[in-house]
Amino acid sequence: MKNSIMLIILSLILIPISVFLATWLWNTQLVPAIDGVNQVSMLQMFGIMVLFYILHPGVKSIKMNSNKSKDE
Hints:
This protein has one domain. It has 3 helices and no strands. The longest helix is centred in the N-terminal third of the chain and has 32 residues. The two termini are about 25 Å apart.
């Protein structure tokens, strides 16, 4: 129970911060450097981040998977 509450609290803090930082970097660094790239809003950046996570969800460690199979 305590772990799930901490996960929710961290998600409510880390997700907006990461979206803000990604939007700020996009608009201040990428837009002036490359012609044809437009500024994005925070909602658009959130959508980009969600789509990127769907396409590249990450890879679990082989070591973790081998430990689970030994336990079963």
